[in-house]
Structure formats: C-alpha cells, structure tokens
C-alpha cells in the first residue's frame, strides 16, 4: 500500500471523500484523508483553535491498486481525479513528501497538523519552535504573530510549497 494524491474542487473535499466511500469498491483502497491543520483565531479577545484544510482541493488515498482505482474513478465525472504523469494517471506521494506529511499528520495521516509553540526574540522575530515548524524555521518567509501563523517554504511535491503553520506563543491560553 502506498499513498497517492487526488485533486478535487477546493471546498468540496468532504463531498469527494463521501463519493469515494459510497461508490468505489473498498478492496481498491484502504484510507482516504483530507489533511487538516490547526490555526488560532481570536474571538472576543480569546484564542480558539480552528481546523482548516492543509492542502485545499486535495485528498490523499492509500491503495495497493492505483491503476484499478484510477479506472474506477474514470467511470464517473463526479469523482476526483488521481494526479500523475504515469500511464495510469496516478501520482505516488514520494518518500520525502510522505516523511513531511507523517511528521505533520501522523503515520496514517489521521491527525491534524498541530500548532507549533514558538519563542520570539525582543524584535518580535520567531527564533525557536517546538512542533512541526521546528525543522522548517530556516525556511520561514513570512510571519504574522498577531494572527498566529508563519509561512515556510517547504520542498513538497517536486516544487517549493508555501505551507502555513499555525503557531502559539507559550503564554497563549487556548
């Protein structure tokens, strides 16, 4: 079994996953995931955790039969399409990408990418982090402390991808 990527309309990920669950033979796939991340939002002066799509418009499916799954998906225009350049039209999630995804979302990609706790210097710059962001601190290209996120440029999917990491300060009450 390996992980593959499917594209769907952003905002319709849940609907696409439901269609896959209802219409495609379960022997062709093991797991279908919509990867989520946690973000803090301030409401009435307090921070609350919100969940958002980590990669809007994409689903990740674990299968041992990508060609047969692609054939099944081709039968309906409603279904999301597997991405890829191979003759079967499928794209396997590469090992380096899977390492990032597992670090962020767990071995079976079942968890939300959690908030990273950051330490900030006297100039207001993020200098250290605990959590998924820690490995990518040198790649931070934008930070918004007030809005509790940073963006880091991460090598993913054969290109550099700007990934939004939800953050919290040690003193934040969540």
Summarize it:
The chain has about 170 residues and is of the alpha+beta class. The chain is built from three helices and eleven strands, in the order βαββββαβαβββββ.
Walk me through this protein's architecture:
The protein is elongated and about 60 Å long. The protein contains three helices and eleven strands; from the N terminus they run E-H-E-E-E-E-H-E-H-E-E-E-E-E. The termini are far apart. Helices cover 18% and strands 39% of the residues. The longest helix is centred in the N-terminal third of the chain and has 11 residues, at 13-23.
Distance between the termini: 38 Å
Summarize the biggest pleated sheet: 5 strands, mixed
- Round the mean pLDDT to the nearest integer and report it: 89
Secondary-structure class: alpha+beta
The arrangement of helices and strands along the chain is EHEEEEHEHEEEEE
Shape: elongated
Beta strand %: 35-45%
Uncertain residue segments: 85-89
InterPro entries: NGN-like_dom (IPR006645), NGN_dom_sf (IPR036735)
Protein name: NusG-like N-terminal domain-containing protein
GO biological process, one term: DNA-templated transcription elongation
Keywords: Transcription
Structure characteristics:
4-stranded antiparallel sheet, 174 residues, 5-stranded mixed sheet, 39% strand, alpha+beta
Task: Give the helix/strand layout.
Elements: E1 2-7, H1 13-23, E2 31-33, E3 36-43, E4 46-53, E5 58-63, H2 66-74, E6 81-82, H3 95-105, E7 116-120, E8 126-130, E9 140-144, E10 149-156, E11 159-169
Parallel strand pairs: 7-11
Antiparallel strand pairs: 1-5, 1-6, 2-5, 3-4, 7-8, 9-10, 10-11
Organism: Candidatus Blautia faecigallinarum
Pfam families: NusG
Keywords: Transcription
